[in-house]
What does this fold into?
Amino acid sequence: MNTDNRHIVHFDLDSFFVSVERLMNSRLNGMPVIVGGMSDRGVVAACSYEARKFGVHSAMPMKLARRLCPHAFYVRGDMDEYSRYSRIVTQIIEESAPLYEKASIDEHYLDLTGMDRFFGCLKWSHELRSKIIRESGLPISFGLSVNKTVSKIATGEANQTVRSKCCMRR
Ligand SMILES: [Mg+2]
It folds into this structure.
């Protein structure tokens, strides 16, 4: 099969752990939030954009995060709850997509090849994104291209764009 004709969309939940924490506690909205182990040797599992502005990032020692962003909300994290929301999103995708792969707790690849012409796939992906946001309450971005690698890069670009949460690459 000619790989140029494939349509692969990558969906990635935005700051997934933080988004779930915000669903459970709306006071965290708009605030720097850092999720991770609380012990001296703990590391940052996830952080909000507001915390990233202070230089905090995933896998950073919690000790350093506390120095950089002492006023953040610190949350231990609840993997059971994150898994539950992850399954909700997978379920929505499963109901909609002909072929998908769950790549991690917050990422899915969907193969839309043969479903429609390229622009049909873009519209379809936009609609699926809206459905996921509506039904799960979680923000999500996607990238669409002819393969997994480029789609993932496109999702990253979409994620950095506040206005548009999708990116298309040919
Ligand atoms: Mg993500």
Q: What stands out?
A: The domain at 17-75 is CATH 3.40.1170.60 (MutS, DNA mismatch repair protein, domain I). Helices lie at 16-24, 49-52, 62-68, 79-96, 118-136, 148-160. Residues 12-13, 16, 106 surround magnesium ion (CB under 6 Å). The chain has a mean pLDDT of 91.
